[in-house]
Write a structure and sequence with these properties.
Distance between the termini: 63 Å
Number of helices: 8
Largest sheet: 5 strands, parallel
Order of helices and strands: HHEHEEHEHEHHH
Structural class: alpha/beta
Radius of gyration: 19 Å
CATH architecture: 3-Layer(aba) Sandwich
Number of domains: 1
Helix content: 40-55%
Length: about 190
């Protein structure tokens, strides 16, 4: 009895990495290919693309705008001092986990008033923001008891959004005939 080795608890790091990876993969596997195709088409044909998100979702939005520019598209981050006004025909992509943040809803209202296309990426398909969308990209992330411990706050949504936006970039690269080398030539010079 005393000689039996106890099975060690899995490390919190490995548990979290596995949990986050599994949940993000599950959420992305539910995406309708037609919705993804529509998003790629809107992005590819837009005169200008704008991205927005609050908090960590905003960091994902900034990363997406960077890759869009590197793909040869014209993209801006809403809230930056050099960002121009949105016009009809432009596309605005808003990342929002709950789809209820005041700044995201206000941004959506302005976008709709100006006649631009609004792509909403959210985990809440019935949110205010989802209802304002021209194109809704719903990332279903069901609540689970272990989620707060392994993926606190918006971690699952943010991780899924980054993978989603990187997948959209890959689809845009294929559609536009871009390569890693062509993206690298447009990469910002950092001193």
């Amino acid at each position: 009895m005393g000689d039996r080795a106890e099975t060690p608890e899995p490390s919190p790091f490995l548990s979290a990495v596995g949990y986050i990876g599994d949940r993000v993969t599950q959420a992305l596997s539910t995406l309708d290919p037609e919705t993804v195709s529509q998003a790629v088409g809107l992005l590819d044909s837009a005169p200008k693309i704008f991205t927005y998100g609050a908090g960590r979702s905003g960091i994902i939005a900034r990363a997406f705008a960077m890759r869009l520019v590197q793909t040869g598209l014209t993209a801006f981050v809403i809230g930056e001092s050099v960002t121009p006004i949105v016009h009809r025909g432009d596309v605005v992509v808003i990342f929002s986990n709950r789809g209820e943040s005041q700044s995201s809803v206000q941004t959506a209202n302005i976008v709709r008033r100006e006649g631009a296309e609004l792509v909403v990426i959210t985990a809440r398909g019935n949110s205010k923001l989802a209802h304002a969308a021209s194109l809704l990209v719903h990332l279903p992330l069901p609540e689970e008891p272990q989620r707060p411990r392994l993926a606190p706050l918006g971690t699952l949504f943010e991780s899924a959004s980054l993978r989603l936006s990187d997948g959209l970039v890959a689809a845009l690269m294929a559609r536009r005939g871009e390569t890693e080398e062509s993206l690298r030539r447009r990469h910002a010079i950092i001193v």
